[in-house]
Amino acid sequence: SGNNFEIIIIDDGSPDGTQEIAEQLEKIYGSDKILLRPRARKLGLGTAYIHGMKHATGNFIVIMDADLSHHPKFIPEFIRKQKEGNFDIVSGTRYKGNGGVYGWDLKRKLISRGANFITQVLLRPGASDLTGSFRLYRKEVLQKLMEKCVSKGYVFQMEMIVRARQLGYTVGEVPISFVDRVYGESKLGGNEIVSFLKGLLTLFATT
Hints:
two-stranded parallel sheet; glycosyltransferase; Nucleotide-diphossugar_trans; 2 domains; Dolichol-phosphate mannosyltransferase subunit 1; alpha/beta; 7 helices; globular
């Protein structure tokens, strides 16, 4: 790609064998390119970001799922978009341009669309996809946002964009195709949906 990079893998004891695959990749590509930083159990997305950021040496951080739901082919587009507008954040969007979701059942689509719709109405964040996690951040901006954000789990993605707008950071968007994982299991359950709604109301009350 012509870009200096490192891949930091944070695995929270997921049931899909992520850690074993990461160990094999580390042997192939070397520990300077593949940094495996596992944790014993699921501790939430926000703390995973903080954990990964401690080990990141670059000026920009791309955050993505490691199960190919987020395809690496979009990373060069994120980099191009960032350079084009000197954005602080570039967010992948499933709901704009030729973006889309593939492999989800109707229930998952309704949950995601519904979450985005309610958030747009309540918070008016100026971004089309708030629950996705495929994003590029300027490292110092990510650090500032992490200090401000209080949410855990899936609300966290939303709060990151809302707080970014509050602090005057610029956000660009790149349409992406999200493909549901072929192997392994999704961790989205009833508890996450309830905590999402609670977090949304908290954000509405405090922003």
